[in-house]
UniProtKB/TrEMBL annotation:
Keywords: Cell membrane, Membrane, Transmembrane, Transmembrane helix. This is Chromate efflux transporter. It is a multi-pass membrane protein. The chain crosses the membrane at residues 83-106, 118-138, 150-181, 201-222, 295-320, 332-358, 378-396. It comes from the Bacteria. Belongs to the chromate ion transporter (CHR) (TC 2.A.51) family. Its main location: membrane. It holds the Pfam family Chromate_transp. The lineage of its organism: Bacteria, Bacillati, Bacillota, Bacilli, Bacillales. InterPro entries: Chr_Tranpt_l_chain, Chromate_transpt. It is found in: Cell membrane.
Length: 397
């Protein structure tokens, strides 16, 4: 029996790594698009997590600093295979882009190859993927007029005030509205989640997060070791990001360009390539680290910038899993989930739609890709390859 259990665990861990690596190779378009890819793979295809649990996990990630899509992926990995499952989910989703960006930093210091055509095609893929995700999530998360109104409020506010403060504020307001509207309502959608993490483990992770944030600057000042200095800069940047991966770019720019650790030209070149690779935008740190200290610097920078997100999601999950069973907390989450639909709609328009659809041919390609995904049920990687090829062809005409 023990041998069979161990074999089953190994099979589960291997499956997590394979599926997350496939997502790491094909998930283009930024954090909002990543959530769409995750929804398609983990909720619709694999059914590892139900609609409500996925939405709750997304809602939790909105409250925590760090890359939301990576934290959602880690959470699903933990749900499926424990802490090691979370690590494997993270590695699979992240390593492909890390590998490409470190290679670019080492061997291609200038963007000599013209990539505009297929990059544009990948942006169109993101439009189709996110549209599909929004339709599915809206159907399940805004079934009544009250939640539709919350989603509409979130959409209008974040479109008119495109700031981080507006996004955080509308999430908090939606939580309050959900609490007031649904605190006495029983939620009949059962959650099948049971995270194998204890509250003690969560406290350890949260304590480690705070301890590193406070101690690393002191150790850096006392030792003046370059590697500790670099680790502190990336860790601090990863600890202060709310609102998605794009927000980390100005933080990293202030840490490394004015100090002369990375030239402005190298910084911008790496940023351009980061937009072209799949996976989380936080992997830009791998490029910067490799630019400064070779492949080892790239790996250390990656660990440093993702470590806060990892500690926070592992630390928050045990408490969140218990709190969300409370009807009042569940009511607040219902409001937040409705707001997430509005936030997705807002992000669908800006930046996804307005940065991708310029001409009638762009809209036509989006319609084709959307139909391939929704009606013909083709795998996401087929949609990605098709979009890239079509983008390159249209650009060449």
């Amino acid at each position: 029996m023990n041998h069979k259990k161990e074999k089953s665990k190994v099979h589960t861990w291997w499956e997590i790594l394979v599926v997350s690596t496939k997502l790491g190779l094909t998930s283009f378009g930024g954090p909002i698009a990543h959530l769409g890819y995750f929804h398609e793979e983990y909720v619709r295809r694999k059914k590892w997590i139900n609609e409500k649990s996925y939405a709750d996990l997304v809602a939790l990630s909105q409250f925590l600093p760090g890359p939301a899509s990576s934290q959602v992926g880690i959470g699903i990995g933990v749900l499926r295979g424990g802490v090691l499952g979370g690590v494997l989910s993270f590695l699979g989703f992240t390593l492909p882009s890390i590998f490409v960006l470190i290679l670019f930093a080492l061997f291609m210091q200038t963007t000599g190859v013209e990539l505009t055509g297929w990059i544009h095609g990948l942006k169109l893929v993101a439009v189709a993927i996110v549209a599909h995700a929004i339709i599915g999530m809206a159907k399940n998360l805004t079934p009544d007029l009250k939640r539709k109104a919350i989603a509409l409020l979130a959409l209008v506010v974040t479109l008119l005030w495109h700031t981080l403060a507006a996004q955080v504020g509308i999430i908090l307001l939606a939580a309050c509205l959900g609490y007031v509207m649904y605190k006495h309502q029983d939620n009949h959608v059962k959650s099948e989640m049971s995270f194998p993490l204890s509250r003690r483990f969560g406290i350890i992770c949260l304590s480690l997060f705070v301890g590193l944030l406070l101690l690393l600057p002191l150790v850096r000042e006392l030792t003046s070791i370059q590697w500790i200095d670099m680790f502190d800069r990336f860790y601090r940047s990863g600890s202060m990001v709310f609102g998605g991966g794009h927000v980390v770019l100005p933080l990293l720019e202030r840490e490394f360009v004015p100090t002369g650790l990375v030239s402005e030209e190298a910084f911008l070149a790496g940023y351009g390539v980061t937009q072209a690779v799949p996976g989380p935008l936080f992997t830009f740190a791998a490029y910067l680290g490799a630019t400064m200290n070779g492949w080892l610097g790239g790996l250390m920078a990656t660990v440093a910038i993702f470590l806060p997100a990892f500690l926070l999601i592992l630390g928050a999950i045990p408490f969140w899993d218990q709190l969300r069973r409370n009807p009042k907390v569940n009511g607040a989450l219902m409001g937040v989930n409705a707001a997430v639909v509005g936030l997705l709609l807002s992000a669908f328009y800006q930046p996804i739609w307005i940065s991708a659809v310029f001409e009638p041919i762009d809209f036509a390609l989006v319609a084709i890709l959307f139909s391939m995904l929704v009606y013909w049920k083709l795998p996401p990687w087929v949609i990605v390859v098709t979009g890239a090829i079509c983008g390159a062809i249209v650009s060449a005409l």
